[in-house]
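[job 0412] stage=complex_fold ligand=iron/sulfur cluster status=START
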Amino acid sequence: MTSTVLEFNSEIAGLFGKEVMERSGQNLYACYQCKRCASGCPAGEDAEYVTPDRLIRNIIMGDREKALNNLLVWKCVSCYTCGTRCPNNIHSSRITETLKKMSKESHLKPLRPKVFFFHDTFIKNSLRWGRVNELEFMGLFEIMNTLNVLKKRVVKPIIDEIINQAKFGLSMVKKKRLHPGFQASKGRHEIRRLYKKENKKWK
Amino acid sequence: MEIAYYPGCSLHSSSALYDLQTRLVLKKLGINLNEISDWNCCGATSAGKIDDFLAVIMPARNLGIADASGFPEMVIPCSACYSKTLMAQKHLENDLDLKNKINAEFSKKVTGSIKISSILEVLLANLNELTGQANKKLIGLKPVCYYGCMLTRFPYDLPVPDNVENPKGMETILKTLDANPIDWSYKTDCCGASASVNDEEMAFSLMSKIMQDALARGANCFVVTCPMCQLNMDAYQDKFCEKHGIDKRLPVFFITECVGLALGMGIKELQIDRHFIDGEGLLKELDIV
Ligand code: SF4
Ligand code: SF4
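[job 0412] stage=complex_fold status=DONE, emitting structure tokens
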């Protein structure tokens, strides 16, 4: 038999945990694994039971791979239930938001590309015009998805998606819920200027 | 009374009916809405997932315009815009360094003076006026009041004007209008928000649970304040019900529609005919219109 020890590697565990805590503003050391967050999390079941408590545990243990590459990061709907119920006021939505950004910086492929394309296209569209133009935004989002699925060289899901979205778009038109009108805000220039000036990077 | 107004992108597009109803109803109650000039998108739930800096500076620009407008209060009917703007205001109260950077660049400066209100706060503050003017009783309307996530839960230290897990603002308003709101368990559960577009299966399962509880309690409609909840529960209802074997359908009314009806306004005037799930039938059956 061998006697085994779980050794602490401060470099791995410490630095990674520190970065997540600093960027999310959440003190994960306060978590005592009571799982109150898990019981109210609407995404947990769908995220193969990677619930907020598990995610926090992975971060504290310094398991970068598991923390950055799991379904909760991409399935979290930012409903804020976990944080409202946590006896230590830890808001895991701010952790999943931070991990999305960190996984992108580490050039990891998002486990749910559609979720990433959605938010990315939304912000690009809102910065482009200052306001979101739903028609253009949804069009670009669908193009991003199609290109991504095309890489896998399967056509059926693309056709299904196009038919699905066209049907939905038509019903939106019928109920006058889709506006062909265009909206913009000149303030976009102010926002972009400040963004540039602060040397913020986002591609 | 004059107050500032931030509609946000969705009230200028897919939920334009909510914009119109808000203006009509509040005007009738003696509140004039002053849409702040050249407002921009607040970043919604997407900005925080892409870039922390953007998540603050996008709503901050609107806050600067609102502060400079001189009005004491600004109403934001969309829950996402309300939540993001309120959080940015709180963030800048604590982060003076960032506030200075923003104020050095933006032409309208953030002072933090304006009070951000949800549509419920404004309606509740004018409840006497509303009961005084209401000429149509909403008898027979048995709504479940659906608040969703962003009206009462915040990942910041913020005072919340209602109970976080069991808010009652909508029930209070509807009861004074003689409707019979029904108690239920999914008041503040999540509809999936943008997951209806980017993670359909999960969103449909969340929405079907909300629907099933509403039906089990004997409700005959939903009442909401959030345009995202309204669009999700309304536009996708046929789809998620079919997928989860639910036969019945329930109209999804905005709170402004219920208030407008009680004030004697009609279906066309309020544009209730722009719903996916028909609400007209129920309102006629109950003799409300
Ligand atoms: S509720 Fe809070 S303390 Fe309990 S497991 Fe979740 S994060 Fe940790
Ligand atoms: S905010 Fe995210 S992690 Fe927290 S309960 Fe909601 S879905 Fe789960």
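Chain B touches chain A through 57 residues (CB under 8 Å).
[job 0412] exit 0
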